[in-house]
User: Fold these one by one.
Assistant:
Number 1:
Amino acid sequence: MEKIYTAERFADGFYFTEGPRWHENRLWFSDFYDHSIIAIDLAGNREKIYDVPTQPSGLGWLSDGRLVVSSMTDLSVMIQSDSGLSKLADISEYSSYWTNDLIVTPSDFIYVGNFGFNLDAFLEEKGQEGIVGNPGPPKTNLVLVTSEGTVRNVASEMSFPNGMVVTKDNRTLVVAESLGFRLTAFDINERDGALSNRRVFADLSSYFCVPDGICIDADDNIWVANAISNEAVLVREGGEILARASAPMTCFATALGGADGDTLFMMCAPTSTAKIASVNRNGAIYKVKVK
């Protein structure tokens, strides 16, 4: 039987929040249209960490503690330095449109997705029907960036690669293919970060789920933000839904954190459409215990 949770409002006053990560006892995340990286503790105290005029998204930390950030509009990855953030890598060779989420593995492999096309313009022209039509939206690549800044393509024909997680044995990368309505898994080569054995971790098409930001629990089950719904769903490999958590607005990303690692944070907003989300601070973060 599915567990059902209802989240409560934790913080608000944001434009559009993405890339949530629990780090050093705070929730870190990006606010696209505030062009900032923010950290907030459980008491609600918030701090702006960096301004990122080129619009931040995914966040991660190298083993030496340096923050890395996907910089959306200039198709790059930035890295923390003594003077702030500087460009680590340009991924435009493999990215047709904005840089998207990223993840950093314990071996310091940085996997980065991108939109592949202008989603808002596509929807204005073709509507929702264009997403599932033939030939459908353009495909794109998943790229690997090293801590030294080298870049290579590690997976092609991806349908809007979005949130990513790594299983607890550090051997499997799972990617939310938003417009493929699935979670896709790869084996990680421990030597060079290459990806192989591409397979479906969970087909979410029958649940009407557009997987966006994701996070993984201690049992390697994945909390999936459904970008066309006000809920997140907990998915087991194979596609079984184990739990649902609801909020009053559409959920675009998830993170697990808190003192015991069992608080689910849901990054919510009324819409992801840029021309609306960028002018109204209607975004909010919700949280709920999910033991």
Number 2:
Amino acid sequence: MFPLTSLARVAGGIAAAVVAVAGCGGGTTQYEPFVPDRVIAFGDEATALTTDAPSGRNYSINAFGGDDTPEDTSDDVIDCTLQPNWVQSLASAYGFVFAECNPDNVTELKAVNRAAAGARVAEVAAQVEAQAAAGGFGPRDIAALMVGVNDVVELYGRFDGSNEAALIAEAHERGAQAGRVVNRLVELGAKVVVANIPDLYYTPFAVKEEAAFPGGGRASLLSRLSQAFNERLGVTLFPDGRYVALVQTDQRVMAMALAPSAFGLGNVTEAACATLPPDCTTKTLVSGASASSYLWAGDVLLAPVGQSQIASLAISRAQRNPF
């Protein structure tokens, strides 16, 4: 594992993480909780569910249902309701399910998932316009959105040792574009729960890049790109808690990385999955890993504990904001 830069950074990070738990995204007391008509999700792997069999798999660590026995694995079936991703949990808080994960065959579906693996900001903008063309949004719809990790990874891949300033500028622009997507959702009539991205400094991807480029400061570069994206996203958002609730994924992930024991975590630097998501299950983990003790499922994909923490923040924001 690479060092966490300086003691000052760590101390500052812990302080910021504590502030994050207090939260932001509204700040106005409401006496009648907002109850949505639908939850409509947009984004990348952090939000997507598979449509191919077995449908409803997420891009974390998928679990098996009650028939999962070590004696007989022939009838083991993935249960997509176990270890859900953040938008599944958000929808579930209102009693909604997505078509991709509907084992009880609910006929009146009130959750829609348009997220797709590999999506960047441009693709998520297209997801929003597709929903607008397919019936749009009602005033009591929650649009849930998380995007940007793939953008940052793409920009990082362009680094040639001399073009950081240009990449930071592009990360700023991608963040602003994401903010404009959120504002477009408000314009279309939705209430928006938007999650920013984790600081990729704390990911297994950063650990690997540090090892591949010793002394190159690659983890710190990933951090600067992540922060540039999130900063511009934050300042571009329509600044009104009646329409937009911000989930500070970056602060919560940093808290988990810096104080893992507080979240019951034993490993915050390595990926748990030996098989890449969405095919990763509790049976395809690296030796010693578990869904409950690892922060990361993949190089930049959160394991169930991380997804659950983001879900808790999202549910809190949705219920506390004066929508």
Number 3:
Amino acid sequence: MSDGDRARIHASAAADAAGSAKDRAQDAAARVEQHPAASWVEGIGQVANGIVHMIIGGIALGIAFGAGGSADQSGAMRALQQTPLGAVALWAVGIALAALAVHAAVSALAASRRGWKEAVRPGGRAIAYAAISATAFAFATGGSSDSEQGADSFSAQLFATPFGPWLVGLVGLGIAAIGLGFVVKGARRDFREDVAPPARFRRLVDVLGTTGYIAKGLAIVIVGALFLIAAVQRDPAEAGGLDGALHSLTTVPGGVVALVAIAVGLMLYGVYCFARGAWSR
């Protein structure tokens, strides 16, 4: 037997072993996803997610009427830090969202059996929940986090690369596409796939989900637009996160009205998260 044949045999065996390991991991993830404890993790995590969104919406509403604050995850955690429960609330939210991130990651692995496209959404949710959880833990341990500085730093790093403006523009398009996905999900009521309320609450949940998803989607679209503006102007300072996007509305005609609508929508999205936690499908 030639060395080439041996190499092909070893490569084939390695591929078979990798495929078998992948199948076992996907099967294990599917079993975990169906475990009764998974519904508890989903429920508690969505309640924590709802609290964060309600606080962000409340801060955004205050900004519309001239108050200060950061209408993003950092601002929400700072607000929680200032409550009587303080660190306890931050630890609770951080742990709940970390567990929700793990749950979403498991769902992504299980969904990958049907193709990688099926794993994209739960995988994206896992990353988002993990990021909010990390912010909560940062504040709970006495540190801090600034989402706006993070966005500026990220865009500055991209600009430092040879194709900086193009990369920043692509990031902006990607973020805007995610936002449009939220808008479409709300308008088409595709969120019904995730929640199964009792019949008497279905209309209410439809209103909460439709309004909430569209509002959150529009806010994310604006974030994407800021990155695109930064790319066109070749200025990393123009890029911003959620807080920068919402603050930017106060500088354009009619923007305050739009900001109020988005703020209310974000709070309604928070209430929707409570419903999803209670009646997750």
Number 4:
Amino acid sequence: MLEALQYEFIQNAIMAGVLISIAAGIIGSLVIVNRITFLAGGIAHSSYGGIGIAIYAGIPILLGATVFSVIVAVIIAMLTLKDKKRIDSIIGIMWAAGMAIGIVLVDLTPGYNVDLMSYLFGSIIAVPSSDIWYMLGLDVVIISLVTLFYREFLAISYDSEFAHLRGINIKFFYTLLLVLAALTVVAAIKVVGLILVIALISIPTYLAEIFSNTLSKMMVLSSLFATFFTLCGLSVSYIYDISSGASIILIAIASLIIVKLFKR
């Protein structure tokens, strides 16, 4: 693996893995403590609609997926805040609609023959430099916002009623959280794919929660775990020539099982 470091695509893969792990660790912690993992999953799968629109319109896929996912996140935030009893139905509808739009538009695109498996299951060694800049910018935005509004995020995560009494705009921060989750999902698509992205967000966080007693510590540990899983998965993928996304998630699951067994 060491001799492979001379290749630019491996260097890009390592940088992408570290950058997306930081974002996944921080946002994953907020997603888990807010118990909105299914919402994040809905956004992840509906982002395929943005991929289909981008392919059909001939615009950058990253741009199409980003705009579409943010719109979906805002719609889900608005609908679930007003009617949380229907939250499963709303997410299911958005999930199916996004996937259906993406599939139909890809089918209607004349002459398009690019393998879409990399978007479904990830291909970290195919991450271009433009995506790395996107991930770097996303990390800066996430770290800045979470640091600036840490108390607000903490309040809405553990006691939304108390947060409301304190004058915190729950609707705004809830929507902001889903938008950040959508941006993280889009960034992670090239690494693990939209099918497995929710696992990258949730597994390291669930593991970090075992060793944490504060939200900030959970974020740090989750980012470190995600980085470890991503780099190990990249190594396994390169050595055995198998899917990088699946390798990353399998290593994460195996680590979680080992930790749970020893903790028991």
